[in-house]
Amino acid sequence: xxxxxxxxxxxxxxxxxxxxxxxxxxxxxxxxxxxxxxxxxxxxxxxxxxxxxxxxxxxxxxxxxxxxxxxxxxxxxxxxxxxxxxxxxxxxxxxxxxxxxxxxxxxxxxxxxxxxxxxxxxxxxxxxxxxxxxxxxxxxxxxxxxxxxxxxxxxxxxxxxxxxxxxxxxxxxxxxxxxxxxxxxxxxxxxxxxxxxxxxxxxxxxxxxxxxxxxxxxxxxxxxxxxxxxxxxxxxxxxxxxxxxxxxxxxxxxxxxxxxxxxxxxxxxxxxxxxxxxxxxxxxxxxxxxxxxxxxxxxxxxxxxxxxxxxxxxxxxxxxxxxxxxxxxxx
Amino acid sequence: xxxxxxxxxxxxxxxxxxxxxxxxxxxxxxxxxxxxxxxxxxxxxxxxxxxxxxxxxxxxxxxxxxxxxxxxxxxxxxxxxxxxxxxxxxxxxxxxxxxxxxxxxxxxxxxxxxxxxxxxxxxxxxxxxxxxxxxxxxxxxxxxxxxxxxxxxxxxxxxxxxxxxxxxxxxxxxxxxxxxxxxxxxxxxxxxxxxxxxxxxxxxxxxxxxxxxxxxxxxxxxxxxxxxxxxxxxxxxxxxxxxxxxxxxxxxxxxxxxxxxxxxxxxxxxxxxxxxxxxxxxxxxxxxxxxxxxxxxxxxxxxxxxxxxxxxxxxxxxxxxxxxx
Amino acid sequence: xxxxxxxxxxxxxxxxxxxxxxxxxxxxxxxxxxxxxxxxxxxxxxxxxxxxxxxxxxxxxxxxxxxxxxxxxxxxxxxxxxxxxxxxxxxxxxxxxxxxxxxxxxxxxxxxxxxxxxxxxxxxxxxxxxxxxxxxxxxxxxxxxxxxxxxxxxxxxxxxxxxxxxxxxxxxxxxxxxxxxxxxxxxxxxxxxxxxxxxxxxxxxxxxxxxxxxxxxxxxxxxxxxxxxxxxxxxxxxxxxxxxxxxxxxxxxxxxxxxxxxx
Lengths: 331, 325, 263
Prior knowledge:
The structure holds three protein chains of three kinds.
Chain A: H1 8-23, H2 31-39, H3 46-80, H4 92-107, H5 112-133, H6 143-167, H7 172-176, H8 191-215, H9 219-224, H10 229-251, H11 257-269, H12 273-298, H13 306-324
Chain B: H1 4-20, H2 28-37, H3 40-74, H4 87-101, H5 107-126, H6 135-158, H7 162-173, H8 181-199, H9 202-208, H10 212-217, H11 222-244, H12 250-262, H13 267-291, H14 300-321
Helix pairs in contact in B: 1-13, 2-3, 3-8, 3-11, 3-12, 3-13, 4-5, 4-6, 4-7, 4-11, 5-6, 5-11, 6-7, 8-11, 12-13, 13-14
Chain C: E1 10-18, E2 23-32, E3 37-41, H1 48-55, E4 63-68, E5 71-72, H2 78-84, E6 85-88, H3 100-105, H4 120-132, H5 148-161, E7 166-170, H6 178-195, E8 198-202, H7 206-212, E9 215-220, E10 223-228, H8 230-233, H9 236-243, E11 247-251, E12 258-262
Helix pairs in contact in C: 4-5, 5-6
């Protein structure tokens, strides 16, 4: 099986996503206007202001968040050997929302920096809880068990968040961000910092990829082949935390992206995990930006948050993958 | 039968507390006076405020509990329930869609259509020739269908104005706020008819529990009996959703709680106790949601989520610890 | 047992069974007379269980017909058939926590109308069935708590409570140890002798089948190899054709029935 990495579909996807993000919106911008804004900056031209202050930050947010969540999905699926794994479904979103809302209530602030700092431990704890409750240590966490553990942990955390928000009216503002993810207002978010975190997570996953492939052969065989399963699992969980925490911190809860990306990368990269992880950030970013563009067009001039769009897109994908599992695999 | 008394006692306790506790405490004496004379603050509470809400909560919980117990029995899996499998989400989506489209149809009809549509989608999508006993595939496909329905309902909810959006939220998350006697009458009326239909099928359910081959050997038309039971269960869940929205986890918890409390063995008594447990859970959760934090009214769905999620986690660790499924 | 009128039992004519592409059984003609204990034998995958399922109408034939007491099997209404013929599938499912008596009660389903209450006849049939399999003391126990042999007897009690003249069993002795296998097989033969119930079962153990059956039906990969008395069916030539097994057949020193000694 020669694993040929097909790059041209990724390039096409990226191109379409960037064009949609920069060009289409309340005010459509032509390619010429975009080019002028980049080459001959004129702060008095409203079209150029829209581009620089709204569209470009949106693009950057989408790139970082999409890359992060797409990668996180691939790593989660490789780690759990479960084609239905996704950071959002496995509790990361709820954990981050819970940490940020309770943190904001206790500390009394709600800056973007605080959000980012709190999102990581929240995401990590919830993901670890789902992984452990789903049977991750004892053996094979099957799709049913893992997904339902994610559903239960998310339901619990969201119920607490909902209750807190209703009890303490001042939490409402913080919470609004956590209803559904959005790529808007990129300028107010720590994009550069999170970008660096995602980069670090990406490098970590690329390094872990061959070890994860060994782990997929079963813990005993992996140990026989000279790897330390616990260390690989720990490293993968760290990578998932970095990636999904960063994605959630800047874009809010976006579920299902990590579910949609791996089937695409698998087809593009022919089953080699490291190659998959090389294209996953671009596939994730493109899909997220395209979903965002669709969300801005579908009810224009109103805007549908991208988190809602990925949920509509991801539900059927979930059904499709669930259906294709052989009965023995659906445990 | 004596064990059923504990459940009856629980129901009475929850009902009494629901009527007395809340924003304003209503002493039993006032309630009694209101009940006998029809006057005073107790009468107001009974007739307008807490009475209809309690009746709706009990009815909704009972139909959801019945529905969950039928699914769990038919699919032989404690994880099977109309909420886990997306049928209640389908009902909620149908109601939101009707709000968006401005359809003027009775709510139960819309909810039933949505629930049945979701059930058909799950059945058709997970059907594969030759595959038998695929209850886990069914559950997974149902989960995904529920995700999709909730996503679509959220999306459609965004297209509604602010006042309608608040109404739409009920149909996404479940709430018992502002329920009147007409809601209570609706869920009890439809629920009783469906419960009667279910009572006629209890024997078939008992045979289906033995597996399709033996049930067929005992003279049952297996496919027809199973479809009838599933349809009844979906309609029962829809009857609950039509008045209170897709209140999560009640259907999942009710059967095991009712059976655990009463140690009932026969299908008929099991269903009866599942209904009672569902009623107790829903009314109790609504009481907590209303009265636990002074000055705050939480939706009942939030409270059943707080109660149900830990149960689901416990169930997962227990079920899979046994090494089956 | 030889003066049974024609058509009193189960008859199979030109029967073909299988899945869309693969036919497991092709053009089978067979007669299973009433009043006999018949064992269906054959190698794995020869269609023994498929045939038994067809006899109980759990699986429609691709071609051919089956008659029960001279009447086409397909023409029976479900409950009427269930009053004539009971089937115990290979791995029946016990509802969690169910007690033996409650399990057996479900065998009365074909005899009860939709709204008909539990009758004295139902109770008698259940008690008799539980007594016949010797589970009287365990009637109130949960089925989960029984031993393997007791559990299988509880299932047999369920089909006995069905009070049918025909009883079909799919590998009723699989997973049981030798003592329990003999316990089940002698129970089935006793039921046949005392009540005249026609017993047809799929079995794996050739020697036990020969010892406890009046008639054997031996299937091979290419279809029916032989049917008839154990002595007529269990020959070295037939075994070689059915199983590809080289064996000597000797008389069983205890019962005198044929006994297979593989070479």
